[in-house]
Protein: Aminotransferase
Amino acid sequence: MKLAARVSQVTPSLTLAIAAKAKALKAEGIDVCSFSAGEPDFDTPAHIKAAAIKALEEGKTKYGAAAGEPKLREAIAHKLKIDNGLDYKSENVIVTNGGKHSLYNLIVALIDPGDEVIIPAPYWLSYPEMVTLVGGVSVIVPTDATTGYKITPEQLRKAITPKTKLFILNSPSNPTGMVYTPDEIKALAQVVVDADIFVVSDEIYEKILYDGAEHISIGSLSKEIFDRTLISNGFAKAYSMTGWRLGYLAGPVEIIKAASTIQGHSTSNVCTFAQYGAIAALQSPQDCVEEMRQAFAKRRQVMLDRLNAIPGLSTAKPDGAFYLFPDISKTGLKSLEFCDALLEKHQVAVIPGIAFGADDNIRLSYATDMATIEKGMDRLEKFVKSRI
Structure:
């Protein structure tokens, strides 16, 4: 069978593959410590589930508007104005099947073959694959620990060419957990305005911050940058709603209309009754978010302390999200070999950094219970010591 050429150009998701392998081993009765999936281990808060159940009981089980339930679009626009200083109306918002889908819709709507998209590395692994699927060109800009794994204004300016259409900004970051400071965001915004390109700000981890770190939405800084900004966000991480598949894209009306047209011919509307759970998530007290954030903060510190005590590993302290991104170069292994051996010999699942454009690193998620963290760190320490 001859498949479309675009399929061969895309790499399957390593995060999903390793998470699936870890689950399969567990199903066989093997004791696996998995730090692979970026998925909170908490249940979805009860009041959010209750709102969806109520919607089901009220018969909200039919097709809805492709761009999302009007009440949810209004609630998202209100959230963006109050929380992020972004003056959007409901017509500036589309509800999507997860945050990933919001980014895919945007790239399909905006990027023509040959258009360039600037992506700082380490990056979330799906960014360049989405660009590839539409025939765009990913311009990867490497960063390292010396800049906190963050792109500088000088790097961004140097990467821009006449073919540049979009810059992807992710703060807090997956996989590094790093957060751009307000001054850093302002400096990047000026480069975007000067070059007259678009920026999409992936803010899915915005509520998971530590040690006084501040999230600034780039579009809030001025009208000039606001007009060039798209916001990608969702409910998966902050509200532990990964399986609900609820995300959104906000931005200029023309782009949102284009994304709605694309969605109308692909998935159509997001699950109708699930959207009422999202409304409850936004309009209810945010205590549940803070409780989970505090738990993540404790886990982060334990895992960070354990990792930095292992000779041969070095790990920067993240300001947000729920990941650590240690440098493994002193082990003499590249990331895929490291991760394969760790899972096979010590039953610990982590993600190779090559998936994120950084082959000397691995990603660990601490969105799991403390007992698993302690056991997994014991096994990781034993493995690294056997290599050094």
Observations:
- The radius of gyration is 21 Å.
- The chain has two domains: 5-44+287-386, 60-283.
- The mean pLDDT is 96.
- The CA atoms of residues 45 and 288 lie 7 Å apart.
